Amino acid sequence: MSVPHTFPTLRTPGGAVPPDAPAWNRQRPSAMPYHRYRPVHERVAVPLTDRTWPSRRIERAPLWVPVDLRDGNQALAEPMDTARKRRMFDLLVTMGFKEIEVGYPSASRTDFDFVRHLAESDAIPGDVTVVVFTPARRDLIERTFAAIEGLPRSVVHLYTATAPVWRDVVLGRGRAELRELIRDAAGHMARLAEARTEDIRFQFSPEVFNLTEPDFVLEVCNGLTTLWDACPDRPVTHNLPATVEVATPNVYADQIEYAHRHLERREDVVLSVHPHNDRGTGVACAELAVLAGAQRVEGCLFGNGERTGNVDLVTLALNLHAQGVDPMVDFSDIDVIRDTVEHCNRLPVHPRHPYGGELVHTAFSGTHQDAISKGLAHHARQAEASGEPAERAPWAVPYLPIDPADLGRTYEAIIRVNSQSGKGGIAHLLHTHHGLDLPRRLRADFSRTVQTATDDSGREATPEDLWELFRTTYLAPAQEGPVTLSSWSAEEIAPGEHRFRCELRTDEGAGHYEGKGNGPLAAFTDALAAAGTGVDILQYSEHATAAGPGSPAVAYAECRVGAVTLWGVGRDTSVLTASVYAVLAAVNRAAVNQASVNRVVAQGG
Ligand SMILES: CC(=O)SCCNC(=O)CCNC(=O)[C@H](O)C(C)(C)COP(=O)(O)OP(=O)(O)OC[C@H]1O[C@@H](n2cnc3c(N)ncnc32)[C@H](O)[C@@H]1OP(=O)(O)O
Ligand SMILES: CC(C)C(=O)C(=O)O
Ligand SMILES: [Mg+2]
């Protein structure tokens, strides 16, 4: 896709800076037609003033009710077929949802057939209740009841829009007429249920509750609580949707608290919410609504649904998990959940989607990587000290609100490297993928090399790329440089006295050399000095790359060779060989470095 570099259709705000604007804010009036819209307080009354929800806490999970198979499904260009619906249903059951809206059976044969499929198979466990959705039309209610015939337990969910614009423009009915329409439908439902032996409960949604006069909501809902003869054992669900999200979440919370406090026979009512996400605050609306008294939340996995979606149940439940509250639903394999949802909906989940997106546990930036890497190491130490397994120990790793392992993710993708990464992240990857524990100064040194490479390419460096860069920079020069060791041996000739014998090849030819020192490396540098290469080892360390015998050792040597100081690294199953290669690699790097300096000088650079 080609993207323009100029934007002729955009109108840069050009009016005068408002006279009351502070000096630090130079924003100017835009030409956007914002005056076409009215604020929510001009559209609906919200009578609550003594709200209590702001000082409450969520200490237990509400009843989650996924509506993927109805509200989510009705938003899809290609609705789910029975196979896809069944896959989604099985996923929801496996995750532990106990009430699941499964369709709008009067809408289509597909939806009807799926409910029949559930009724005629053993797909519904004994502790799961399905919900079916119906408008307030007798013929469609009858079709809905035909769909649930034989289901041992179900909830029939009646809906009608109640807000003024919908009453006037869509339904063409005043308040009284609409109330009668709803009561007629509800009465019909009650009669049909009475003729059945199955356990059938009722739910009502005043669609667009959030723009409906509160007294009308109460009038209609209270009327249905009575008409349906609700009781604590057979409560009615009043589901108060933000069908189109129109206000900041505090307004919805006020509306829910008002309903919570004024609905009659409150113990006979399950107060449910159903936020959509038009303003991008569906999750906040649901959370504040629970603080305000909601006991049940309808939503979809990963927020599929009409327009910008239904509220996302994954985020809601895992937000609780991250606060130390049991979400009462299992997310321990988030990738399987996401893959299944993507398959059923034929829609991708955004890589930044909270908790489940592909990139949400990944840090590219240097200081974050450094903090995560230190945090993970600290977590492992703390867990070990406390005797708890790391996956059960309290979590406090910077930048990772929860342990990705809780969601079945590994730590592999947590740190990814590009030009904005730093030494901490790079060292972390070399450690996790190759068992290397780079000395601090070598980390900084390699980080500069990586930065040059990623700046040049503009791309990410994968762990394989990093290893290749590390290998060619620090390891390979031992074998590929101007100075090579054709053969060598080291021995302790007296306590604390070592001898190193070797055949060295340089640009000037081959020769046999010998050196002595208080250790094999000192003896090797003595031999190198004899060959005309003065080397000081400034820093040296070594370690095994994995536990157990036979795992390669790695040695790091920071050497001053002539005027330059450079690192070399060696890797071999023998620690001595690794250390000799490390020094030799530094020597060769210095030689190559000197050669390029000489070239530049010769060219007059
Ligand atoms: C916010 C929500 O998610 S609401 C759920 C929305 N979901 C769907 O619409 C998906 C399934 N819907 C359908 O398959 C169809 O719309 C049906 C089968 C329900 C009805 O189809 P049709 O009879 O062709 O009507 P249509 O789709 O045009 O709906 C508009 C009619 O329903 C009426 N209507 C709208 N909502 C309701 C309701 N809750 N109860 C009763 N009637 C309603 C409208 O007033 C309009 O009536 P009119 O034709 O007399 O003007
Ligand atoms: C609950 C129903 C009516 C709904 O999907 C909505 O209002 O968004
Ligand atoms: Mg909806």
Automatic annotation (TrEMBL):
<keyword id="KW-0100">Branched-chain amino acid biosynthesis</keyword>
<comment type="pathway">
    <text>Amino-acid biosynthesis; L-leucine biosynthesis; L-leucine from 3-methyl-2-oxobutanoate: step 1/4.</text>
</comment>
<dbReference type="InterPro" id="IPR000891">
    <property type="entry name" value="PYR_CT"/>
</dbReference>
<keyword id="KW-0432">Leucine biosynthesis</keyword>
<dbReference type="Pfam" id="PF00682">
    <property type="entry name" value="HMGL-like"/>
</dbReference>
<dbReference type="GO" id="GO:0003852">
    <property type="term" value="F:2-isopropylmalate synthase activity"/>
</dbReference>
<feature type="binding site">
    <location>
        <position position="71"/>
    </location>
    <ligand>
        <name>Mg(2+)</name>
    </ligand>
</feature>
<dbReference type="InterPro" id="IPR013709">
    <property type="entry name" value="2-isopropylmalate_synth_dimer"/>
</dbReference>
<keyword id="KW-0808">Transferase</keyword>
<feature type="region of interest" description="Disordered">
    <location>
        <begin position="1"/>
        <end position="28"/>
    </location>
</feature>
<dbReference type="InterPro" id="IPR002034">
    <property type="entry name" value="AIPM/Hcit_synth_CS"/>
</dbReference>
<dbReference type="Pfam" id="PF22615">
    <property type="entry name" value="IPMS_D2"/>
</dbReference>
<protein>
    <recommendedName>
        <fullName>2-isopropylmalate synthase</fullName>
        <ecNumber>2.3.3.13</ecNumber>
    </recommendedName>
</protein>
<comment type="function">
    <text>Catalyzes the condensation of the acetyl group of acetyl-CoA with 3-methyl-2-oxobutanoate (2-ketoisovalerate) to form 3-carboxy-3-hydroxy-4-methylpentanoate (2-isopropylmalate).</text>
</comment>
<keyword id="KW-0028">Amino-acid biosynthesis</keyword>
<feature type="region of interest" description="Regulatory domain">
    <location>
        <begin position="477"/>
        <end position="605"/>
    </location>
</feature>
<feature type="binding site">
    <location>
        <position position="310"/>
    </location>
    <ligand>
        <name>Mg(2+)</name>
    </ligand>
</feature>
<dbReference type="InterPro" id="IPR054692">
    <property type="entry name" value="LeuA-like_post-cat"/>
</dbReference>
<keyword id="KW-0479">Metal-binding</keyword>
<keyword id="KW-0012">Acyltransferase</keyword>
<comment type="similarity">
    <text>Belongs to the alpha-IPM synthase/homocitrate synthase family. LeuA type 2 subfamily.</text>
</comment>
<comment type="subunit">
    <text>Homodimer.</text>
</comment>
<dbReference type="InterPro" id="IPR039371">
    <property type="entry name" value="LeuA_N_DRE-TIM"/>
</dbReference>
<dbReference type="InterPro" id="IPR036230">
    <property type="entry name" value="LeuA_allosteric_dom_sf"/>
</dbReference>
<dbReference type="Pfam" id="PF08502">
    <property type="entry name" value="LeuA_dimer"/>
</dbReference>
<keyword id="KW-0963">Cytoplasm</keyword>
<keyword id="KW-0460">Magnesium</keyword>
<feature type="binding site">
    <location>
        <position position="276"/>
    </location>
    <ligand>
        <name>Mg(2+)</name>
    </ligand>
</feature>
<dbReference type="InterPro" id="IPR013785">
    <property type="entry name" value="Aldolase_TIM"/>
</dbReference>
<dbReference type="InterPro" id="IPR005668">
    <property type="entry name" value="IPM_Synthase"/>
</dbReference>
<feature type="domain" description="Pyruvate carboxyltransferase">
    <location>
        <begin position="62"/>
        <end position="335"/>
    </location>
</feature>
<feature type="binding site">
    <location>
        <position position="274"/>
    </location>
    <ligand>
        <name>Mg(2+)</name>
    </ligand>
</feature>
